[in-house]
């Protein structure tokens, strides 16, 4: 699995990913998870453990060999992880008492201002009495478990100021290892464990010298620290990156407790997060007493069926224990069908922008001012002008100008560049590396211009010099000024953090999109949350970028990705769990989805980066509205039987179902369709004539209330709901209704509509997503 973060600071990993592609064929799985799927009774643990060794010895030839090969014996799954040859794996899979043998697959790892943007506090940091934060006491009694790259315990975001005693039910701990242990933990950071055996079985021993990582829950990557502090970081005033985005950093549930389960590791093969380690983390997290799992990692399509997907199995186990799992949708957007982490028992999170921008300006000698973006805190004397040069006219001796124009490593002539602002063209090398090359050659600033094919899309990067990125058109103005002027000059004004930018949110271009390629009739992602330029705590074990020579370490870093949007929802889920301890994971997701907003801060429908209006494939139900989610009126709950019927609807065998659930289930003769899972959205991907779908809502609003439905049918489709009125006379009362969807004309592609239950106070909205079968 890979961490799902954006472009910044991941250059090194990107390079390594390329290497790993070439090496991939040589890296066939060396280890497997073997499932027996008997009932979950921990009293049988000792007997079971013996049985596992006996079973493994039977294929390994000896008990000693079995002991050496065994990686994990899980406590809550009747399963173990072990090294095996493919032949041994096949032998085990044939056994009657084994329900499946799953390869140890690799998954990849996929803020201050963002909370105000979500309406949890005002611009002055004041929190309203009716906000989810106040109502939930900032999530103080809830534990968020992060499956990630670990945690940097010294961060101010993990201070336990203002927190009461650790919840009595907590059974976890901070496991001793490299520079980590109980002495690094407190009433905020209450757990830290590491799971490495599955990784080492595949990629060899962790080399701490080569990777700079720690054999412990300590985070050398930064990703885990960032996600943990976004989900549950305490109030940390004065947090900023290189002086930018200065403010009080805090998480989605600022007083929630944090437990770090380190499952992602670096290596020269690219590193990653392995199934057997992930399952071990879920296994222990459930035992420890985690309330919400936050999982910012995944594997892009093609997606494995749920019974082969460690994240799906682990999170189903969490669900069986009443624990919510929140996961990132992936960074493979905007192409259709790119969404990952699609089990209907997870909350799947897309990413979008917030209303903050990092603006910088260059003033040319003719007083023409050009606006761009930057994340650097470095400044020039803005009263002064400096000589300006096109990098194309400053190639190092023997270097072609067609290379130096991109400011590639070693391509610039120090004689010509020294003391000047240099104009570089985007392309070929990493954006931040260009300002690094200008700095190495003695330059004092950089203007990075988009090439024609890059258009207007700008990125704010942590450059090494006073620098900014400008659009293609604006770049042309700079180049033309240089060409037309004998002694061109310019100055770069300091980067400013600008708030109130409109429109926001805008769905991030990288955010993975539906349709769901595994279960087409369950829409994913479910929801969108802030995921661009998110400021949160970081590791101090590495610099802000991975460029050799970068030694700028920061306590807080700004990064982008669905990895960053996921923990926003984890924090919100933790607060909701604190406010409504009896709500199921399905109820929490329902509250988040049916109360989401579809409008941006310009009161228009939320758009994508391309400016077209986003559909539920991009934003799911919309942008999270935490204060409304606290009090949704009605919820769509899902029972265990519903999930079993769902597996039957997918055509899963008894063994498949046992692998996921640990239980035997007899599918009914008349299997309900996938669309009938009581989800807060409705998807019908192959509508022929008409289809009837059942839904059931539970009253959690006013004891006595009458809800009326309003429907916006998708174009070419007619939607009818009966009964159109639901009367409740008590809380927890359930009412069912029928949604009849009828084809009127061929829709060719997907079409979208909504239905909303309202009682005058509450408004409970669901998306309808339909594609008709073409008439033959
Ligand atoms: C770890 O990496 C370093 C640096 O590449 C190398 O010198 C060392 O031999 C490696 N150690 C092991 C145990 O592989
Ligand atoms: C950040 O803000 C705090 C409080 O407003 C202020 O004291 C501090 O100097 C600021 N830091 C930077 C780097 O701007
Ligand atoms: C640019 O503006 C400054 C200050 O307003 C002025 O002194 C200078 O003459 C202007 N330069 C040009 C080339 O217009
Ligand atoms: C520089 O590169 C361009 C494009 O690749 C090529 O057309 C040109 O001949 C090269 N010039 C020299 C001096 O090598």
UniProtKB/TrEMBL annotation:
<feature type="domain" description="Inhibitor I9">
    <location>
        <begin position="31"/>
        <end position="110"/>
    </location>
</feature>
<dbReference type="GO" id="GO:0006508">
    <property type="term" value="P:proteolysis"/>
</dbReference>
<dbReference type="GO" id="GO:0004252">
    <property type="term" value="F:serine-type endopeptidase activity"/>
</dbReference>
<keyword id="KW-0378">Hydrolase</keyword>
<dbReference type="InterPro" id="IPR015500">
    <property type="entry name" value="Peptidase_S8_subtilisin-rel"/>
</dbReference>
<dbReference type="InterPro" id="IPR003137">
    <property type="entry name" value="PA_domain"/>
</dbReference>
<feature type="active site" description="Charge relay system">
    <location>
        <position position="563"/>
    </location>
</feature>
<dbReference type="InterPro" id="IPR037045">
    <property type="entry name" value="S8pro/Inhibitor_I9_sf"/>
</dbReference>
<feature type="region of interest" description="Disordered">
    <location>
        <begin position="206"/>
        <end position="234"/>
    </location>
</feature>
<dbReference type="Pfam" id="PF17766">
    <property type="entry name" value="fn3_6"/>
</dbReference>
<feature type="compositionally biased region" description="Basic and acidic residues">
    <location>
        <begin position="212"/>
        <end position="224"/>
    </location>
</feature>
<dbReference type="InterPro" id="IPR036852">
    <property type="entry name" value="Peptidase_S8/S53_dom_sf"/>
</dbReference>
<feature type="active site" description="Charge relay system">
    <location>
        <position position="223"/>
    </location>
</feature>
<feature type="domain" description="Peptidase S8/S53">
    <location>
        <begin position="139"/>
        <end position="603"/>
    </location>
</feature>
<dbReference type="InterPro" id="IPR041469">
    <property type="entry name" value="Subtilisin-like_FN3"/>
</dbReference>
<dbReference type="InterPro" id="IPR010259">
    <property type="entry name" value="S8pro/Inhibitor_I9"/>
</dbReference>
<feature type="domain" description="Subtilisin-like protease fibronectin type-III">
    <location>
        <begin position="676"/>
        <end position="770"/>
    </location>
</feature>
<feature type="active site" description="Charge relay system">
    <location>
        <position position="148"/>
    </location>
</feature>
<dbReference type="InterPro" id="IPR000209">
    <property type="entry name" value="Peptidase_S8/S53_dom"/>
</dbReference>
<comment type="similarity">
    <text>Belongs to the peptidase S8 family.</text>
</comment>
<keyword id="KW-0732">Signal</keyword>
<protein>
    <recommendedName>
        <fullName>Subtilisin-like protease SBT5.3</fullName>
    </recommendedName>
</protein>
<dbReference type="InterPro" id="IPR023828">
    <property type="entry name" value="Peptidase_S8_Ser-AS"/>
</dbReference>
<keyword id="KW-0720">Serine protease</keyword>
<dbReference type="InterPro" id="IPR034197">
    <property type="entry name" value="Peptidases_S8_3"/>
</dbReference>
<feature type="signal peptide">
    <location>
        <begin position="1"/>
        <end position="28"/>
    </location>
</feature>
<keyword id="KW-0645">Protease</keyword>
<dbReference type="InterPro" id="IPR045051">
    <property type="entry name" value="SBT"/>
</dbReference>
<dbReference type="Pfam" id="PF00082">
    <property type="entry name" value="Peptidase_S8"/>
</dbReference>
<feature type="domain" description="PA">
    <location>
        <begin position="411"/>
        <end position="477"/>
    </location>
</feature>
<dbReference type="Pfam" id="PF05922">
    <property type="entry name" value="Inhibitor_I9"/>
</dbReference>
<dbReference type="Pfam" id="PF02225">
    <property type="entry name" value="PA"/>
</dbReference>
């Amino acid at each position: 699995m890979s961490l799902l973060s954006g472009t910044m600071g991941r250059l090194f990993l990107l390079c390594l990913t390329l290497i790993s592609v070439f090496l991939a064929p040589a890296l066939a799985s060396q280890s497997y998870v073997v499932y027996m799927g008997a009932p979950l009774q921990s009293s049988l643990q000792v007997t079971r453990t013996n049985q596992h060794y006996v079973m493994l010895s039977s294929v390994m030839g000896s008990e000693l060999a079995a002991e050496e090969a065994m990686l994990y014996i899980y406590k809550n799954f009747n399963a173990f992880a072990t090294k095996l040859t493919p032949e041994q794996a096949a032998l085990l899979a044939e056994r009657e008492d084994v329900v499946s043998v799953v390869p140890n697959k690799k998954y990849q790892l996929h803020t201050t201002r963002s909370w105000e943007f979500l309406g949890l506090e005002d611009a002055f940091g004041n929190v309203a009495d009716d906000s989810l934060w106040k109502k939930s006491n900032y999530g103080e009694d809830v534990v968020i478990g992060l499956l990630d790259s670990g945690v940097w315990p010294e961060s101010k975001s993990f201070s336990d100021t203002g927190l009461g005693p650790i919840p009595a039910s907590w059974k976890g701990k901070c496991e001793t290892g490299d520079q980590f242990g109980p002495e690094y933990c407190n009433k905020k950071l209450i757990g830290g464990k590491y799971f490495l055996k599955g990784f080492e079985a595949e990629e060899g021993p962790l080399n701490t010298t080569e990777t700079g990582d720690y054999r412990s829950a300590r985070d050398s990557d930064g990703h885990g620290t960032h996600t943990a502090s976004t989900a549950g970081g305490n109030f940390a005033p004065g947090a900023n990156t290189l002086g930018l985005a200065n403010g009080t950093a805090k998480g989605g549930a600022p007083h929630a407790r944090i437990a770090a389960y380190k499952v992602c590791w670096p290596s020269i093969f690219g590193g990653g997060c392995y199934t057997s380690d992930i399952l071990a983390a879920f296994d222990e997290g459930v035992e420890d007493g985690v309330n919400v799992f936050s999982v910012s990692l995944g594997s892009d399509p093609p997606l494995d069926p749920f019974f082969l997907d460690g994240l799906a199995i682990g999170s189903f186990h969490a669900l069986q224990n009443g624990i919510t799992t929140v996961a990132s949708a992936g960074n493979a957007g905007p192409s259709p069908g790119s969404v990952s982490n699609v089990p209907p028992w997870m909350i799947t999170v897309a990413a979008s922008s917030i209303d903050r921008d990092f603006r910088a300006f260059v003033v040319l000698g003719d007083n023409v001012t050009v606006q761009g973006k930057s994340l650097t805190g470095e400044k020039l004397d803005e009263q002064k002008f400096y000589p300006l040069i096109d990098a194309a006219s400053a190639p190092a001796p023997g270097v072609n100008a067609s290379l130096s124009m991109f400011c590639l490593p070693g391509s610039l002539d120090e004689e010509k560049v020294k003391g000047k602002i240099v104009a570089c063209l985007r392309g070929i090398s990493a954006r931040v590396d260009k300002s690094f090359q200008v700095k190495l050659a003695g330059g004092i600033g950089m203007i990075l211009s988009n090439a024609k094919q890059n258009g207007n899309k700008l990125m704010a990067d942590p450059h090494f010099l006073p620098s900014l990125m400008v659009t293609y058109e604006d770049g042309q103005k700079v180049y033309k000024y240089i060409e037309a002027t004998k002694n061109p000059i310019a100055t770069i004004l300091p980067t400013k953090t600008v708030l109130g930018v409109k429109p926001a949110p805008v769905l991030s271009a990288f955010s993975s999109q539906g349709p769901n390629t595994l279960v087409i009739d369950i829409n994913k992602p479910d929801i969108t949350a802030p995921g661009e330029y998110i400021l949160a705590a970081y590791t101090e074990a590495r610099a802000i970028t991975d460029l050799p020579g970068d030694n700028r370490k920061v306590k807080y870093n700004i990064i982008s990705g669905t990895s960053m949007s996921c923990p926003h929802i984890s924090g919100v889920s933790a607060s909701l769990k604190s406010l409504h301890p009896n709500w199921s994971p399905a109820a929490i997701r329902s509250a988040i989805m049916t109360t989401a907003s579809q409008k941006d801060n310009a009161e228009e429908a939320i758009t994508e980066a391309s400016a077209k209006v986003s559909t539920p494939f991009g934003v799911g139900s919309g942008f999270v509205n935490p204060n409304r989610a606290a009090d949704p009126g009605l919820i769509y709950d899902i029972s265990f039987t519903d999930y079993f019927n769902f597996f039957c609807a997918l055509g899963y065998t008894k063994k498949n179902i046992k692998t996921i659930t640990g239980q035997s289930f007899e599918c009914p003769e008349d299997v309900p369709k996938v669309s009938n899972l009581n989800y807060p959205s409705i998807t019908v991907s192959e509508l022929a004539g008409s289809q009837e779908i059942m839904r059931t809502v539970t009253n959690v609003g006013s004891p006595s209330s009458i809800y009326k439905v309003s429907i916006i049918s998708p174009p070419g489709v007619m939607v009818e709901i009966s009964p159109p009125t639901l009367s409740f006379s008590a809380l927890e009362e359930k009412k069912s209704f029928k949604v009849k969807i009828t084809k009127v004309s061929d829709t060719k592609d997907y079409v979208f509509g909504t239905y909303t239950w309202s009682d005058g106070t509450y408004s409970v909205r669901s998306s309808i997503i339909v594609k008709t079968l073409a008439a033959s």
